[in-house]
Amino acid sequence: MPLEREQIRALILQELPALIETDPEVQRLILQLTQKYFAGRSETESRFDRVLEELRQMREEQTRRWEEQAQRWAEQAQRWEEQDRRWQEQAQQWEEQNRRWEEQAQRWAEQTQRWE
Q: How far is CA 54 from the centre of its chain?
């Protein structure tokens, strides 16, 4: 009585795992049949290494960009501090000038009173 297709399939599924583990010829056959569908170990490792290298480069680039941006922020903060210092100096000069005008106005008022 010949084995039917479903019985052959069931037998293969039952015996194949053990054959793969123990029979080098079966191992080579399975490897040969699956090579066109799956990348080999070295190719997979090479791809993985390339991805890791790309990630490392991207991380370094992003770190460099953050450092540049931090430097620009520090420079801008320094410019703001300098501008704030100038504004404070200008405000002091205006206050001093206002004080002088008030003193001058007072002298004029005193002088005007003397002439009257």
A: 13
Average of pLDDT values for 38-64? Answer: 92
Q: What is the per-residue pLDDT for 42? A: 85
Read off the pLDDT band of 1 (50, 70, 90): low
Structure tokens at 85: 């210092």
SS3 36: coil
C-alpha–C-alpha distance, residues 104 and 116, integer Å = 18
Please state, in angstroms and as integers, the Cα–Cα distance from residue 96 to each residue in 92, 99, 100, following that order: 6, 5, 6
Task: Say whether pLDDT at 57 is over 90.
Answer: yes
**Spatial contact of 79 and 72, defined as CB atoms under 8 Å apart:** no
Q: What is the domain partition of the chain in residue ranges?
A: 1-38
To the question of pTM greater than 0.85 for the whole model, the response is: no
Check if the beta carbon of residue 11 is closer than 8 Å to that of residue 3: yes
Tell me the CA distances in angstroms from 53 to 4, 33, 57, 60, 76, one per residue in order. Answer: 53, 32, 6, 10, 34
According to DSSP H, which parts of the chain are helical? 5-22, 24-34, 41-115
